[in-house]
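Table S7 (text form). Paired inputs.
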Amino acid sequence: MSHIFVSHAEEDRDKAMAIARELERAGQRCWIAPRDIPKGTDWRSSIAVAIDTCSAFLLVFSRQANGSKWVDRELTHADELSKPMFWVRLEQAEPRSEHLFILRTVQHVDAYHDSFRLYAAEILDGLRQRSSEKVSHVRQSPPVISPVQSRSAVSAEEWTNSLGMAFRWIPAGTFKMGSEEFTWSQPVHPVQITKPFYIGKYPVTQREWKEVMGTTPAQQEKKAEEKLQLGIRGEGDKYPMYYVSWEEAQVFIAKLNQREPGERYRLPTEAEWEYACRAGSQSAYCFGNDEQVLVEYAWYQANADSKSHPVGEKMPNAWGLHDMHGNVWEWVQDWYDEAYYKSSPKADPLGPQTGSSRVFRGGGWLSSPQGLWSALRLKYMPGDRLGILGFRLLRTIH
């Protein structure tokens, strides 16, 4: 195994640390907060990434853990990712109903004695057993990219093209798409993404757009209908491009594909976009449901000062993607049909075959907190240009 994520309530920190030390003494690396949170990093993001990359999840359970919202979020995140689990009960207490639903089939040990060395072997044996049962859920490895393919690739997890556009590798997998909070995002339904892909680490920037298309936001605004003109709301090489229609995004993609023979760029489908945005979560946002945390991940109505901002200034999601919430909305490939989710295929849905409007996602600098939900979908005419709307590219894997 790689590292085990140790989840615990604040009140149980000393006992959780004692358990982690015994496991490490037995040769098993552990990740535990706050010890393993790098200095100067956002602790919520660090925890999310640690769960995403762990080989197994260990819950240190007590009455305090039973009532901890942070333990609840960590347990739910691990369950959504199908992580192998084991729990250690520190006292006579039963998990509340939400936890019991997850833990009902998970092996545990009662560790009422403070000499945790007595339990280390049993914990490790239990985790190894659970890991062998979960082989089918192990995260796929990113592809090995040859020097010819990679141009200036940083790693297999992150790939950079000839324009300097960074892309993050996204594994195949399943998730629940949609939300019951919005009638046009109903019903919540299972979706399978059958092939891994690369998606832009950031929205397409003004520098990247100008190098391919030769225009600036000011020039693009002049093409927009007068009623859609909002002025220039953020300008510079690292700012996201906006005042781009869906049709113009297709021209950009065609030119980039010609510029890089053998590559295949396109807009993500709605399903691919939401899957990448969620990054293993099933909450309102990629990090959870707490609107108070939103300022760390997004530029929106409360903090954007009515303009866009340079990409990458806010925290990324668990898969390393920035600005999936806020800054500018992002076009996706699909036609819009409010009823499509009721009959869409489970595997790799492509959206309706025809329509009059195209879908865009993610929220922008003008959006309310609810406008930034991972599941929210809106629509506009494919020829229209808005000062709040840009796009992000997907690169297929051959």
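Next pair, protein 2 of 2.
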Amino acid sequence: ITDQVTIDVTPAYDLDIELGPGQNTLICPGEAVDLTATTEAPNPTYGWDNGLGNGASHTVMPNTTTTYNVTVAYGECSVTNSITIIVLNPPSVAAVINDATICPGGSIELQPGGGQNNVTYTWTLQDGTVVSNDNNPTVSPDTMTTYIVTATNSENCTNSTEVTISIADLSMNVLEDTVVVCEDGSVSIEAEGTGGNTWSWTPNNNINGANTSAPTVSPNVNPTLYIAEYSINGNCPVYDSVVVIVGGTFDIDILTMDTTIFQGNTIILNTSIDTLSTNPITGLMYEWNPADWVLTGNDPANPAATPLEDITYTVTAISAEGCEATSNSINITVIPPQYDMPNAFTPNGDEDNDYFRPVFSDGAVIEIEEFKIFDRWGQMVYNNESTNGWNGRFKDKPMPQDAYVYMIVLKLPNGELINLKGDLTLLR
């Protein structure tokens, strides 16, 4: 018995893996490679490992050296091939200096790190402008600038880093150009600034807080110039200054002696200044204590006082430089003004006792608020028409010898009103 079996033998086909144009299996980090599996087998299907899946072509970008396997299946047959993509080591690069700040108009040397042979460096700006191909260029930016350094090795692999150079922007000023202080005293001088972190004042003698923005100084030389330096850790300093005027010391005395005056009288309070040093004494102000009844006017050093009661005065003089002195005291005794009302007068034209009016003591300051005179029938014959008093006439006719009644209101300097009433005799 004879039988026949036909066995179909599928021919073997090659499987190749091709790279993209100009590509090879040596790449730098970050580069991509196109992998394409090719075969003449009919109706092939492809399977890749490393997660690539199906399909004849894939683009890969391995971080490390990687072998890619592809299997092509056709009919009952399959064939496998592989390719290894070698990732080369990039050049190491690191800016030796960190981001830095330089002074306006200053410069700085840029230094790449790494220390590798056969490596070249290119410094560029962020927009791609080439700054230098030197390893260590010196730059002088006017504004904050970021520099990118790119290292390239012999395999043409590159690596980059960047450094930003800022320009110091310091500003500072003293709050007062001139301050004053009394001799042997102290005063605060103050400045304010932005952009820096370090203060220094000179001269640094007789100063407390020379490394702060507001030291206290006690100069003994007039004037003394203090210079403030403001910087970034001593770099990029800016300066300003303040003049301290040292005022001289002095004594003040009241020259007017203790005295007694009538109420309403005025007394001049004379003072004298005795300088105790050669430093300036300017802009003296006088503060009288108490200030009651003191009229300083245009001469506060020698004012007029019109006290209405017993009083003790002192005065404190204060200079523009802040020095001050207080005087001795003066005691003023104030007595009430004296007055009297006569009971008769003789208006006969002999210029002796021709007027009826109140009699005031010498120096007394008294005002006549009301002054009226009535005859025995109650008719008012005088109503304060004259500063001299009543001349014994009514409606320009002489009044007869008789008894009359007066009513008068006197005002004392302290405002007190005195009401007086009495009889008077007109004699002819």
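The radius of gyration is 56 Å.
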